[in-house]
Structure formats: structure tokens, C-alpha cells
Specification:
single chain; mainly alpha; globular
Amino acid sequence: MSTHTTESADRRIFIDKQSPTAYRALVQTAEAVRTVAAEAGLDRTLVELVNLRVSQINGCAYCLNVHTRAAVRAGETTQRIGVLAAWRDTELFTPDERAALALAEATTDPGDTALQEAAYDTAREVLTDDQISAVIWAAVTINAFNRVSIMSKHPVRPQ
């Protein structure tokens, strides 16, 4: 690592530690979203796939690390995690998962109206209103956590 990068990382504030009240509110939101997703009948692995896909798009190493472990604990396979970035090019994901992943991508890139409409149309075919809402909330929440970790430069340490 270059000196410049080290110095830059050393200047970063862990905003979750600096503003714990705001961070606790975000954690409470994530807990509420997990409850909403479960009540809507969404499997924990689907929620973790959303967390992983959004974190891939945003390039959040810390959240990728956390949610890879969570996905494996929830029963997700390493094969599906490994090909997640190319989910459209595989037959490994169910129609519900494909719809959720498309919605998550559209939520992460809200400026692409065509992507939003296509994702919503697909979701309407296979997901309930409660499931659509839960997926969007899951994507919104992980996007927020990605930004916290990226801006704080949360480290990923060997395990």
C-alpha cells in the first residue's frame, strides 16, 4: 500500500462510531427490514443475495465480506455467490430471485428509468406487493450501509 493511501485511510472517520445514534437508527432500520422481508415470505438467502449484489455494484469490500458470510450461514452456495455478478447469464436463480436482483439493481441505480420499469414489470409477475416493498427496502438499506463503510474505509481483515 502506498503512503498516500495509508495516510488517506488514517484520516477517515468511522462515521458509525463518530455518530452512534445515527448508526443505531440505521441498524434498527435493517432489523425492521429483515422482519418485513420474513413476514412477506422472502427467504433469508434471497435477502442476502440482494445485499451481496448491491454491495458488488457499489464496490463495498466490507459489506461483501459480511454478507458473504451471512449468505453462507443462511445456506447459500459458493457457486451461486461466485456467479452472482453475472446472474442474468446463469440458470441458477429462481424467477423470484431474478426479480429481486433486478429490483435491487434498479434501486441502486435510480437514474436509469428504463431499468426501473423493466425490473418493476418483472417483479410484478412473480412477487407480491409486500415482497416488492421488502426487496426495495433491503436494497435501500444495504446501499446506506455500503456508503457508511465505503466513506469510513472499514477494513476487511483476514479471518
